[in-house]
Each structure stands twice: as structure tokens, then as C-alpha cells.
Amino acid sequence: MPRSVLNNTVIPLLRQLTKKLGPQQAKNELRWMADHVRKAIPTKLTAEHATSARLWRDQPAPSAEETEVASKRFSSVQWAWLRQAVHDRVETNKPLQYILGTQPFGNASLLTRAPVLIPRWETEEWVLKLSDMIRAENTGLLNILDACTGSGCVALGLACALPRESVHITGVDVSHDACDLAIENLLRNKKAKQAVEFQRLDLNEQGVASELKSRGMWDMVVANPPYVTPNEYAELDPDVKDWEDVRALVPGDPMDVDQSGLSFVVRLAQLARELGLADGESTNLPRLVVEIGGAHQVDGARQAMHDNGFNLTEVWKDMAGIDRVVLGYHKT
Amino acid sequence: MNALRALRTRPMRALVRDVRLSGLLNTGMTQRYATTAQSKPALPPGSELAGKSNLTAKIHEKLKIMQYKHNKIMEQMTGDISGMEREDMARLAKEQSSMGMIVVPYEHLLKLYSELIELEQMMSADDPDLRRLAREERQEVLENVVTAENDIINALLPKDSAESAGAILEIRAGTGGDEASIFCGDLLHMYEKYAQLRKWKLETMSMDSEGDKIKEIVLKVSGRGVFGVLMFESGVHRVQRVPATETQGRVHTSTATVAVLPHAANVNIVIKESDLRIDVFRASGKGGQHVNTTDSAVRITHIPTGISVENQQERSQIQNRERAMQVLRARMYERERSRLDLERRASRNKLIGSGDRSEKCRTYNYAQNRVTDHRINFSMFNIEGMMNGTALQIVIDQLRIQHDLDELASMDNFDDISPPNQ
To answer: Which of A37, A50, B250, B285 has the fewest CB atoms within 10 Å of its CB?
Structure first.
């Protein structure tokens, strides 16, 4: 058989993926890749092409059944994309989300691009839980700062899950790549257009707090800050280490001698106090919501919050049972 | 009938017969009812001429009583109404209209029976033209009789509200390895095509497949009356053919199991959050920023009943959870529904196989081009038509007829025959 025919079957692709992912997940990922390639590289031209080719040769046009069967097959361009995708996935450990370019997150659909951090399901889980909380409280417009916004997932996840006019979210990130991607995601999710804005900002700079404060009253700070310790970073899978921005993973504070990974969480607690969130009347909603890496960071995060005036703290676990979110309240 | 009416003005053989005919046409029923009250229930005159009928004598009895009651109500409503309350009037009107749904076709049926008697007379007349006309008319009247009987049966049967809603269709490969999976794919194709014909919407809830070989697939079918049609598909479908993977041309037998559940869209199934255990893929390690996983499989277990549903179709855990919940709700609804059904009637209609998944319902024999449904012992010689969905309707129609008859026959407790709810 000609080699070209053998190249275009699913089995070698499946075998390659199985080596890396195991049988079940290999099937799932191949299915998602196939769905994606059908949408991204449409083959309408092939059907017309086949029809005109047949008619040109004085043969009857393909019947409806034939075109239907043929439309289910992949074209050679699509096969080439699939082979490249599987190769990248297996040989270079390129994350699936970067290959497909998208990731659903709550009610929003986000674009993903290296090296911006890919939204995690744990983040999606607490964002939706927080939005349920906010919806139930039904207060007036909340002014929320989303620090380390990355792809904009937290900001857009909240905005798409909440009714209009209930939140105004400002997402900031130190990385230009992240801000560009976040703005693209804002255009992609029109529902959030009025409620969200993105800006490039380095929260470690001097005078940031007063600059933000001058814009008005803030009600909440939410964040998925970098929390991987330098030791852990060395042990990470190549999926993550080779592809995602280290600044999104490891808090790069040269003063962080104790390697706890909490330096940015501490900075956020300070920032929240500087923005006045530790003052004023008590509310049922948290003032500061920060994602952490696990039980080893709970005490440090709670302490940092207490030190900055958030006298009540709460911890949420994710569905895998790991301590994932620390929330700080101000109660009088 | 007009031609015959014209002919009827010709003097018939005896005046007596005229009187007898007219007597039967007008007041025969009430007379007959009075005389046969104490004897065995009898069929209306002329019904034997219609051939084998689905309405037994007992049912005719009940229908007569209903007709009597209906006439009584009509009398009340057209008589002296000045003394009646408004709500009494409303109640009477409602009863009259709901009974009317059964009684009107029944009266029509009785008229048809008497027409048949007349036509019998015609058939033995001397004039060949008359005989020919009578034969043609008789054909038409017989068809009308069948329609009227079906109308009555439809009006009498208890309505299952689940039948008008959508359904969840599960197809699983049974014994037979790869060939069973390929057959699953063929069955899926059949149902897809059939749904297209009926203009139903199909949505894949979860699928476990490799190309054409499908190990398991769960579909949601939306449309009107979907469950009432697809409910007969539950059971084990058996195929006998030479598999595509076979090198020596031997015939193999493999099976696929189909389960159809009513889609619990608007039904209030109360599922307490605390009764659910939700399992997700746990990264061995820290999760969060440390890991990038694409595995968003969710398994939901309802602890009290032990029903568990898994879904890994979508790339987002939230979406998978939603799909799993839909299937879970459908399974719980089916459980609840079959429990209620069982309580309602002692003997379940044996055509709708649920629970017992080992019931062989249909065999597809490619070599003989034959499809046989074992529940009604019905064979059809059109495999291609079946597998591309066009001939499936024929089998379903037969199943539906048999199902209705069984329902009718099992209504031994005659309190079941009551005016239908509208």
C-alpha cells in the first residue's frame, strides 16, 4: 500500500498519545483535537471539488450518502495538522490547550497562548463559588481588582457568571503578553465587555497603591498569584516548566529566603490594606481572595492577612481535597 | 352511500324487514341493553361482520354504559337548566366533553356496524351492479370501522405523560468484541437517520469510541413524543452476519444493548447535594499551578440509590458535571417511574423491556436480509431499509399496536375505563 494512505489513520496517532497519556485520556485528547481540526480547517471546498471533478469526467455526481461519508473523513490538510499536533504533544510536551488555542472557563471561552498561564480547573471552581456568593449577597456595584490576571480568566469568569452592573473588574498583570491575551479574551467574550478592563501594571512598584486608590473605592481584591516555590519548580512536569511563564508560577522576590512561595501573597495582603479594604463596615463578602498551593501555605497566608487587618480568615478546599483558597474578611 | 340510498327507494322484499332494519338503526341499542342485562355480554349486531375486532364484549358493555350516561348528561344540559348552579353546569359540560371523546366515536362505530348489516343484505341481492356497489362500499366501511375502533382505543388507554417527552438513548456493545462495537455504530447510524426523518434533535452526552467502533454512547433525543416511540427499543439487539474483520467468511453473532430512559426535563426530581459524591481525577501531587491536566472526568454517585454516572466528554469539569447530572436525573426518574408503574399495575406490559437487560428484543440477520422482532414475532425482509432508518417505523408501528392491545387486555379492573383526562 502506498505509504501516504497508511499515514492517514488514527491508530499510530492514538498509539503515540497513549504512551504519554494512557489509553483513556489519549482517546479523549485525540477526540478534542479532531473536533478542533474539523472546525478550524473546514473542508467544504473538498465536497465541491469532488462534485466538479466527477462532473468534469462525465461521471455522476457523488450521492448524498457518499458526500456525507466523505465529509466525515479528514482531508490531507487536516491530517497534516493532526500529525503535527500529536507530535508536538508527545515529543515537545506542548500542552493541549496551547495546541487547540482555547480553554472553556465557567461561562466564558478563553484563548490560550504560550507563555501565558493556562487556566486551571481549581481556579474555575473557586471563581464560580465566589460568584455564587456575590450573587446571593446582591449588593450594589462591586469594584474588584484582579491581580496577576494572566489570560484574564478570573476577571472574565466572574463577569460572565454575574449579572450586568453588579461588578466592575480591573485585571492587572506585569507581563505584556498576558495583557495582550487578556484583551483579546475580553473581545471574545462580549458579555463581559462593559464590566471588565485590563491594564499592564507592576504591583511591586512604588506608588502603585496610591495610584489605584485615586481611581476610587475598591471593594475586593482577588488573585491567583504565583505560589510555586523554587524547589518545587525544579520538579515540575515539562508540560508546565518548558511552556508556561515562570513569572506566573514562582514569586520572584529575591528577599524570599524562606522559600515558602508566599511572598506575593504577603504583598497582596499589604496592597489590600493600602487600598483601604481593611477598614470600613463589615460585610458578608470577603475583601481578599487568594489562591494558594496547598496546606503548607495556609498558615503563612492567614498570618499575612491577619497582620494586615483582616481579622477573620477562611479556607476553601478544592474538589481534590487540597486547601486551595484563603479568604480574608474584615469584621467589626 | 348516496348511490345505495337512491336504490333503497326500490321496494324491498318485505315490509317487516324494513321495520326491523329501521328499528335496529334507531333504538336498537337501548332495547338490546335492556334485554341482555342479565345474560352474557353480547357484541353489537353487525360487529361480527367487521371481522376480528380488538374490542371485546366486556369493553362494549362498558362503552354502552358510558353512552347511556352521556345521553343522560345531554338531557340534563338541554333540559331545564334554570335551577342549576354555575359550577354544576361547568362540571356537567366537562364530563360531557371528556366522555364525548369516547362516546362519539363509539356511536359512529355503531352506525358503521348497522351499515354493514345493510350491505350484507345488498350482497345477496339479484342485481350484479348492486352486488358490486355493495362490495366496494363494504370495503370503505370496513376501513372506517378500523379507524373508529382505534380512536376509541386511543381514548380509553391511560396516558403516560413520560411518553410525550424526550428520551435518553444509551447504546452499549455487548458480546462479540470489535464486531459488537461496529454493530453499535450501525445502530447509532440507524437511530440518527430515523431521528432525521422525524425531525428530532440529537445531542451526544458521552461517547466512548474509536472511530467507527463504539463501546458505549449516550444520546439525548429531543422532540415531541420521542419516548413513546423509542421506548420499544430497550433490550438486546442481536446481529448475525459476516463481520468486516472476518477473514474466512464465517457468520458471527454479536449483540448490543440499548436502553431508553425518559428525559426528566421538567419533572421535579429532588436530588439533595448532600446525597451526592462527586469524584474527579486527582492529580497525584499538588495540583493547581504545579500541574497542567486535561483530564476533567467527573463521576457522580448518588449514595442512597447507588446510581453512578461518569462523564468525560467535554474539556471543562463544570460542563462534564452538568452532563453527568442530566443523565443521573434521567436514571433516577426512570427508577422512580418504573417503581410507580409497578405499583399501579400488577403485570407490566411485556413489550417495554427495562430492568431486565438480558431480554433479546430483535435479531438482524444479514444473510437472510431479515429483521425479526421477537416480542411480537414480526419479521421484515429489508435490512438495508432498517439500517438506514427508513423501515424502522414499520416495526415500531407494529410494536405500538401490540402494546396498545396488551394495555387494553390488561384492564381487567374495569374501573380503569374512565373518561380520559384532557
So the answer is: B250
Q: Which of B208, B288, B296 sits opposite A324 (nearest CB)?
A: B288
The alpha helices in B295-382, defined as continuous H runs, are: 317-344
Q: Are A160 and A191 in contact (CB under 8 A)?
A: yes
Q: Is the CB of B289 less than 8 angstroms away from the CB of A120? A: yes
CA count, 13 A, side-chain hemisphere, B179: 18
A66, A121, A160, A235, best to mutate vs chain B, most B CBs in 10 Å: A121
Q: What ipTM does the predicted assembly reach?
A: 0.85
- Cβ atoms of residues B371 and B399 within 8 Å: no
Give B-chain residues touching A264 at CB under 8 angstroms.
none
- pLDDT 10s per residue in chain B (422 long)? 454 444 444 444 444 444 444 444 444 444 344 343 444 556 777 667 666 776 777 778 888 888 888 888 888 877 766 666 777 788 888 888 878 888 888 888 888 888 888 888 878 778 888 888 888 888 888 888 888 887 887 777 766 666 777 888 999 998 888 899 999 999 999 999 999 999 999 999 888 887 778 999 999 999 888 988 998 898 899 999 998 888 888 999 999 999 888 776 555 667 777 888 888 876 667 888 998 888 888 899 988 888 889 898 889 888 898 899 888 888 888 887 777 666 554 444 555 544 445 678 899 999 999 999 998 899 999 999 999 989 999 999 888 888 887 777 766 544 544 444 43
Nine-digit cell at B256?
448490543
How many beta carbons lie within 10 A of that of residue B319, not counting itself? Answer: 16
User: Considering only CB atoms, which chain A residues are within 8 Å of B208?
Assistant: 27
In angstroms, rounded to a whole number, what is the distance separating the alpha carbons of residues B367 and A208?
A: 80
CA dist B260 and B235 (Å) reads: 9
Residues of B in contact with A103 (CB under 8 A): 315-316
Pairwise CA distance, residues A38 & B381, whole Å: 38
What is the pTM assigned to this prediction?
0.66
In this complex, do A226 and B210 lie within 8 Å of one another by their Cβ atoms? Answer: no
Nearest to B290 among A95, A128, A236 (CB): A236
The answer to whether the Cβ–Cβ distance between A27 and B282 falls below 8 Å is no
